[in-house]
Design goal:
The complex is a heterodimer of chains A (449) and B (542). By secondary structure, chain A is α/β, with parallel strands linked by helices. Helices cover 41% and strands 15% of the residues of chain A. Chain A contains 19 helices and 14 strands. In chain A, the strands form 4 sheets. In chain A, strands 2-1-3-11-4 form a 5-stranded mixed beta sheet, with helices on both faces. In chain A, strands 8-7-9-6-10 form a 5-stranded mixed beta sheet, sandwiched between helices. Chain A has a two-stranded antiparallel ribbon with strand order 5-14. The chains are: A alpha/beta (449), B mainly alpha (542). At the A-B interface, helix 1, strand 2, helix 14 and helix 15 of A face helix 5, helix 6, helix 7, helix 8 and helix 9 of B.
């Protein structure tokens, strides 16, 4: 009996795999991908664990990396085939800020997913400055206005408050800068001689690897930080800090991580690249699958997988907080945030040129790009890094195989999202007018049009 | 006669214990041969029983003290928690092996495995449902007990808030009165200032009282509710197991290598059929191309191996391999150089400044230097002939040798070279004058003098140096791996630190024991070597 069932099972498996359009004739079938222990590495891990990579004929190892710099170095030197990267990393590497190498991306891994956490002490002071915050559920979004007096007082004492972000070209850096600058706190400029970005700043924003963030907050090395999950929920769970604002509140549905490979690797392994993107798109869709009531179907299983020690390794219950559509701002303040992690909805996985250009404008705003550039240059650079053609090739195959729907993919787009003013300060961003956007901010570099 | 051979056996055993440095077991052997039982028993009591009791006492102290130190990352784990984490790591490793086996399983064995796993999964699902019910119950219990404990504090907080509201209002009235008095031209500035100061003080006092209570509430909220925690752990354990079983089913069915090969073969047959029926040149060409592609796909699938995650055991193997590579390189550099320094004062003078400057350099600095230097030799490690060769060897292929291993080994070598070098030089320089004189009298040539007199008499010190080198190398390696994230025990520790899960602390302590025990065994190994080359069976300290 069992044998018969199993024969059936096998037959089903065979039928299923022969139904798939045939596997791509990949150039390389054993791959190593790097990731940092953050929940937004999920598409990579899920594509491996649910078997999407295997269905493409790929045996993939995903390897934890100690920090973003080493991750990038390992991709450049060929130790890794590709990696979970900060959106800014491929762009910065390609324009030569930091390590120079031509890195491209054909897949955006997720939207949102970060938050800014302040220490308990700073939170108490912010509550003093703004009594509306002094409740169990303060109104959101919280701006940095109540933080400004604390920064000013420290500055009067000759001290600049130390804050942490994860990497100079990380989304987190730009987000915490945006949040501070929106309240008139100058986060400091990068110049050709000051590569730490302290020049003229009211605070000191420096690099700390994500997993060490909570301990730096505890030891007073940082009084605030901006980082991805689970490191904000970890601060709540351990009672060492209070997340005040998520990046969803700073910019709704902002691009976060991408899957990056070197141009050289992509040129040598074009079919492998498409196969990888196929598996990742399916993983993204799996992560965002919901039932009719809008509840996530697979997120709990995803947390279960991510909590394995060779992946993110944090406690299941901590991962679950933010991944299943909720976020704890304090132990007593749990809020529904269905869009805190977006892996597929809103055409999230498409590599938008306008996202690339936003990061370029921020690099220019804070002086990482030292010279003024033309709008043309922004567009050309984004095109050098973002490769929608690869994404679309993979999506087309998936559509033919019936794994995705027509509406899942923006087939006809020119690569620019509609202009949006979903920012905490309400300024409108239009990817086609980077210079105008740059000039609409008070703090930061401005260029003559 | 029999007695004689028994004696021989006894002395051989004692000699073995002596060489390996386990003299503590000496009385046990002697007692077994009934040699002065009283004396042996006394020795056993003094040198075995008391140390064991002391060790137990230490564990007891650990057990008692650990839970009292509460850190933000949880309590300091007790011995049983550490033991538990050793077990969890072991489970992780066996699960990886099982998955690998499942991936390669074929035929009836595969079918039997599917049946077995499915039965286990069904049992697990039932168990999980039960545990989840318990969890829900405890979660509700937790909410209730929190509410019960917080309610009185909350009430007090509200009272205090009300009180400070009243006081604040009074103070404000006083301030206003003083200000009004000035307006009327009756008062001076003093009362107003005093009133303002009093208001500030009252506000601060009120806030302090409030935050005192708030801190207490926070403490209650962060108190772990033991039954809930236990229920969570239970649920997580079973859910993890189910997760593993689902993955096993996957590896036994759709992801199984034989199944995938079979699927590809079927496709090939289909393509070949189409090829045979093809009538146009274009169709034939495209089907033929497809057939060739299918053939190469089958070939590739047949060779495919399971991409296993690193487990603690593979990491131990890798660390040991790395440390030996580094150690051998260090020895190969240190011994000839040391002999040279011992023989020639000029060589010694030349090398002294180099030794003195580079010996105290931190391993971290060496690591960074080698990381940069070694990286340059392997621009494309995946297709570099050295790695292709190393990873094709049977045992080494499981270690995934890469540049990270090479530069970790170089760092070990750079730190381990100095003790061996200095000791060798010392050993050669302090050879008994009589031996040298004998060599002179015999008119031995340089070669004979070197190999018959100098090296043999310097060997004990050389090995003493090597022993220190290996110890240093092992210590350095763990740090190097942690920093460079090269797979091995160091990375294991670092990853655990980064995971920050509730098991991390216990895992780090577990790794501490693993590193320590391996270090101890390595040291013992060197002691044996050292004792074997000493003529006098010279003493070695612990």
């Amino acid at each position: 009996m069992i044998k018969r069932i199993n024969r059936l099972l096998t037959a089903a498996a065979l039928a299923a795999s022969s139904l798939h359009a045939e596997q791509l004739d990949v150039e390389k079938d054993t791959l190593k991908f790097g990731f940092i222990k953050l929940t937004d590495c999920a598409p990579l891990v899920i594509a491996k664990e649910i078997g999407y990579f295997e269905e493409e004929g790929l045996q993939v190892e995903v390897i934890a990396q100690p920090n973003w710099k080493q991750l990038l170095d390992n991709v450049i030197n060929g130790e890794l085939d590709g990696a979970h990267m900060l959106s800014g990393q491929p762009i910065a590497a390609t324009i030569g800020f930091g390590t120079e190498a031509h890195i491209i991306t054909a897949y955006t891994m997720d939207l949102n997913g970060n938050a800014i956490t302040v220490s308990n002490d700073i939170w108490a002071q912010m509550q003093c400055n703004d009594p509306t915050l002094d409740t169990d559920k303060p109104p959101h979004p919280i701006t940095a206005d109540s933080l400004k007096p604390i920064v000013d007082a420290a500055k009067d004492e000759g001290r600049r408050l130390p804050m942490g972000m994860v990497f100079p070209v990380s989304t987190h850096n730009y987000e915490i800068r945006y949040w501070l600058a929106a309240a008139g706190i100058h986060p400091g400029m990068y110049t050709s001689t000051d590569i730490k970005g302290f020049t003229g700043g009211d605070i000191e924003l420096s690099t700390t690897p994500p997993p060490q963030m909570p301990s730096t907050l505890e030891s007073g090395q940082n009084v605030a930080y901006c980082v991805g999950e689970p490191w904000n929920q970890q601060a709540v769970a351990k009672g060492i800090g209070v997340p005040v604002v998520t990046n969803y509140d700073i910019w709704k549905n902002n691009p976060e991580k991408v899957f990056g490979v070197t141009k050289k690797w992509a040129d040598e392994n074009p079919k492998t690249h498409i196969a990888v993107v196929k598996a990742l798109i399916r993983a993204g869709k799996w992560l965002d699958a919901t039932d009719e009531a809008g509840n996530f179907l697979n997120r709990e299983q995803a947390c279960r997988i991510l909590s394995q020690k060779n992946y993110v390794g944090a406690d299941y219950d901590v991962l679950k907080n933010s991944m299943t559509g909720y976020f704890y701002f304090q132990k007593s303040d749990k809020r529904a945030m269905p869009d805190f992690n977006v892996f597929f909805k809103y055409h999230a996985t498409y590599p938008w040129y306008s996202d690339g250009i936003w990061f370029l404008t921020q690099m220019r705003r804070w002086g990482q790009i030292t010279e003024p550039q033309t709008a043309e240059w922004y567009y050309e650079t984004a095109k050098k890094v973002y490769k929608p053609e690869i994404y679309l090739a993979a999506a087309k195959l998936l559509l033919a195989e019936g794994h995705i729907d027509e509406a899942d993919i923006p087939w006809e787009t020119d690569g620019f999202k509609v202009p949006t003013s979903d920012f905490i300060d309400g300024i409108t961003y239009d990817g086609k007018d980077p210079i105008g956007y740059l000039n609409s901010h008070t703090i930061g570099n401005k260029d003559a049009i | 006669m029999a007695e004689k051979s028994l004696d021989k056996f006894k002395y051989r055993t004692l000699r073995f214990l002596d060489v390996t440095g386990f003299t503590v077991f000496d009385p046990v052997v002697r007692l077994a041969f009934r040699e002065e039982p009283n004396k042996q028993l006394k020795a056993l009591f003094n040198y075995m029983l008391i140390p064991i009791v002391f060790a137990l006492f230490c564990i007891f102290v650990w057990w008692q003290v650990a839970p009292n130190h509460k850190t933000k990352s949880g309590e300091v784990p007790t011995p049983d928690v550490v033991w538990n984490s050793a077990m969890i790591n072991h489970t992780f490793s066996t699960r990886e092996q099982t998955k690998e086996r499942d991936f390669l399983l074929v035929g009836d064995a595969r079918l039997a495995a599917i049946a077995e796993v499915e039965a286990m999964a069904a049992a697990g699902t039932a168990q999980l449902a039960k545990l989840e019910a318990t969890l829900a119950q405890h979660a509700a219990g937790n909410i209730k007990q929190l509410a019960d404990r917080i309610a009185p504090l909350q009430a007090r907080l509200e009272i205090i808030e009300a009180q400070s509201g009243v006081i604040n209002a009074e103070m404000k009235a006083a301030v206003n009165a003083a200000a009004a008095a000035i307006e009327r031209g009756e008062g001076t500035a003093q009362p107003l200032l005093a009133a303002l100061r009093a208001e500030d003080e009252a506000k601060d006092a009120g806030r302090a009282a409030e935050s005192f209570i708030k801190a207490q509430i926070d403490d209650i909220r962060s108190d772990k509710y033991a039954p809930l925690n236990q229920a969570r752990l239970d649920v997580n354990a079973v859910a993890d197991k189910l997760q593993f079983l689902t993955k096993r089913i996957d590896f036994l069915t759709t992801s199984n290598r034989s199944i995938r090969v079979a699927a590809a073969e079927e496709q090939l047959a289909e393509t070949q059929g189409k090829l045979a029926e093809a009538t146009t040149a274009k169709a034939a060409l495209s089907e033929a191309k497809r057939a060739i592609r299918n053939e190469s796909l089958i070939e590739r699938l047949e060779q495919q191996q399971y991409a296993s995650a690193m487990t603690i055991y593979t990491q131990i193997n890798r660390s040991l391999f790395t440390v030996f590579i580094g150690f051998i390189v260090a020895a190969m550099v240190a011994i000839p150089l040391g002999v040279l320094c011992g023989l020639s004062r000029i060589a010694m003078a030349c090398l002294t400044p180099i030794i003195s400057i580079f010996k105290p350099v931190s391993p971290v600095v060496y690591l960074l230097i080698f990381q940069i230097v070694v990286g340059a030799f392997f621009p494309d490690p995946d297709s570099h002939p050295l790695f292709l060769f190393l990873n094709s060897l049977p045992f080494l292929s499981t270690l995934a040798i890469n540049p990270a291993l090479i530069f970790s080994a170089c760092t070990v070598a750079a730190c381990a070279v100095w003790p061996a070098l200095v000791n060798t030089a010392l050993g050669v320089a302090t050879i008994d004058k009589d031996h040298i004189n004998v060599a002179r009298v015999l008119r031995l040539g340089f070669k004979d003098r070197l190999f018959k007199i100098i090296i043999p008499s310097a060997l004990p010190l050389v090995f003493a140096g090597l022993r220190i080198s290996l110890g240093v190398g092992w210590m350095v390696l763990i740090a190097a791996e942690a920093l460079s994230s090269s797979d091995g025990l160091g990375k294991f520790v670092w990853d655990e630190y980064q995971n920050g899960s509730s098991f991390s602390f216990a895992n780090i302590l577990y790794a501490c024991f693993v590193v320590g025990i391996i270090g101890f065994l390595l040291d013992r190994m060197m002691i044996i070597l050292q004792r074997l080359v000493s003529f006098d069976g010279g003493s070695t300290s612990l």
